[in-house]
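Field reference: sequence -> structure
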Amino acid sequence: MLPFEAIRLAIVEGLQQETGRLVIQMNGGGPVPEGDFYTYHFPGGFRGSGGQPILLQQQAKLHRLEAVTFTFSFNSYADDTDVALIHAMQARDWFHTTGAERLKWALDVVVVDVGDIQNRDVNLGEEWERRQGFDVEFRATDVVITDLSGWIETAPIQRSE
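Structure field:
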């Protein structure tokens, strides 16, 4: 199984540590934070690489390994468009450098693509919510382990006459 929670925490905590800004889940409920912040969204789904999985048997366990990709979407919120853009650039840079290395070595997750920053401003009545965002595509190895103990290893053979 993919360690999704560990991956999500590494991204959120690493980005918060690097930028000093709060990183929250989009549409996660609760009040909107004061000041500048980031949101992340996992649109859902893990996509297989299209190849065949690797099957390895070790002792009484069958290991099925498959490369999967998944995407996170990030938005930078600020009162000013330029500030939101600068913060989005800082977050994007983190995925190109420190974040990519941290995810690779700690969790075996590779940053495949860091998308372009896009204006994602939203008009809420008479107010504008200023935000700049980008998507990041990741690749990881999904490991499924099946216990083979208890399977028939020998069977008595009887000859019929």
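Note: The longest strand covers residues 127-147.
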